[in-house]
Amino acid sequence: MTVNAERIAAHRLYGSWQYRYRHRSQATGVPMTYSVYVPPEAADKRPPQVIFWLSGLTCTDENFSTKSGAQRLAAELNLLLVMPDTSPRGEAVAYDLGQGAGFYLNATVALWSSHYRMFDYLSDELPALIRQQFSTGDRQSIMGHSMGGHGALLMALRHPRRYCSVSAFAPIVNPSEVPWGRKAFGEYMGQDEKAWRQWDSCRLLADGGAQPLPVLIDQGDADPFMPEQLQPETWAALARQHQWPLTLRIQPGYDHSYFFIASFIDDHLRFHAGYLHT
Amino acid sequence: MTVNAERIAAHRLYGSWQYRYRHRSQATGVPMTYSVYVPPEAADKRPPQVIFWLSGLTCTDENFSTKSGAQRLAAELNLLLVMPDTSPRGEAVAYDLGQGAGFYLNATVALWSSHYRMFDYLSDELPALIRQQFSTGDRQSIMGHSMGGHGALLMALRHPRRYCSVSAFAPIVNPSEVPWGRKAFGEYMGQDEKAWRQWDSCRLLADGGAQPLPVLIDQGDADPFMPEQLQPETWAALARQHQWPLTLRIQPGYDHSYFFIASFIDDHLRFHAGYLHT
């Protein structure tokens, strides 16, 4: 089978490889970039299980790959990490608002709807491409930061049987109610808020129906975006109500930066490995 | 005693703090920026020992602080990390060639000599400031990458009694003989190459006289700069001749990036801790 992705970078890292690829996406209709960390071959030759990382506003696939330090423990735990970009980009996508701010949804407003289809891209196209490119186990989990934390919870709620576990750092849990989300949702889907419901992890959780998954959420209490944009307690209350097994940790003094992510990423990898490897 | 440095950033990291400071430097005559990682208080209350990290061409104090992952183990080993900038900067230093390329020396050519005094800055001013700001042990070691590897070896050779150990990633060991160094040395010190000798770690080693220090050097064999700019074997041959205890490791497949640094930084911290903590 031909793999339709061009390798644009390869760096030796922790005894194996950090790769960067570009491919023409069916879902978004433009070239998309993603990074992958492949762990060293395991002593028992078992193929690695897969974790997707979804980044926050303004990020590319490279923020996590250069700043999180996640690959050190991923190498040890035999986990393959996939780091997609946060939106379509490039000349064919000439909308400045959207670049770095795809919100992991399918847009319906005409200006955006032909390219801004990150939900379709992440649901099917990218996982299938990864399975084509690499020899992996058949399980996957998902995690993310801020807008990417919203994305991870969204993917888990919309596709509960496809993931073993989900985790997030400072997620935007209730995008239809907070300024960052309202601006993006209004642009991408128009002002009829009923259409927003399926892209809001609080609303999806409240609607019930999704099979509960193990969830870990870390939130710094010195995060300047917590009071207005993030509100993890709202999600936690709904999770309790719907019997989702959630660990919410409020981390004293931590902010919204990659220093916060680096401090706790090892806990997230061990959390996911516990479900991926059993 | 008044500490004459302004804190411009503070991020909680691995149970303690990553700081960024700006101060008006006596040595360079302009405001200088530096970052510091302070480890959590040790169980036995012993103050941390200090390691200086010198970065490479084009870097600021932030490359290492965001990309190396060093703070994780520094927290565990009770090491305080100091990350200076790589040159003077700002409006008062209106020379583009020099910014990010200070080469850790004192310039003598008039255009540069009033500000480009990184050797004086790193020898005395910054260590004294760190001791004023933080409660530390009385030992220090030094390490760096590329131009900063040259800087670390240079500092160790010029001040052998001030450091317990020295290490480097892909250092420019012989700047007076390779293009990067020859360009900078010619600019900063003029064309009389006799004046370059005291800033070249191969020449200083060949001259003898410095007390040998434990040295660890890592070099990737896929580093595109190795053949022309780096040449660690030249330094290794001189080190053997002058009874310096050197470990030179050629790392297969690794390049010149921070992925290379992240892969081996833990080894460097453990190496230094072995000398700082005995």
UniProtKB/TrEMBL annotation, chains A, B:
<dbReference type="InterPro" id="IPR029058">
    <property type="entry name" value="AB_hydrolase_fold"/>
</dbReference>
<dbReference type="InterPro" id="IPR014186">
    <property type="entry name" value="S-formylglutathione_hydrol"/>
</dbReference>
<protein>
    <recommendedName>
        <fullName>S-formylglutathione hydrolase</fullName>
        <ecNumber>3.1.2.12</ecNumber>
    </recommendedName>
</protein>
<feature type="active site" description="Charge relay system">
    <location>
        <position position="256"/>
    </location>
</feature>
<dbReference type="Pfam" id="PF00756">
    <property type="entry name" value="Esterase"/>
</dbReference>
<keyword id="KW-0378">Hydrolase</keyword>
<comment type="similarity">
    <text>Belongs to the esterase D family.</text>
</comment>
<feature type="active site" description="Charge relay system">
    <location>
        <position position="223"/>
    </location>
</feature>
<dbReference type="GO" id="GO:0052689">
    <property type="term" value="F:carboxylic ester hydrolase activity"/>
</dbReference>
<dbReference type="GO" id="GO:0005829">
    <property type="term" value="C:cytosol"/>
</dbReference>
<dbReference type="GO" id="GO:0018738">
    <property type="term" value="F:S-formylglutathione hydrolase activity"/>
</dbReference>
<dbReference type="GO" id="GO:0046294">
    <property type="term" value="P:formaldehyde catabolic process"/>
</dbReference>
<keyword id="KW-0719">Serine esterase</keyword>
<dbReference type="InterPro" id="IPR000801">
    <property type="entry name" value="Esterase-like"/>
</dbReference>
<feature type="active site" description="Charge relay system">
    <location>
        <position position="146"/>
    </location>
</feature>
<comment type="function">
    <text>Serine hydrolase involved in the detoxification of formaldehyde.</text>
</comment>
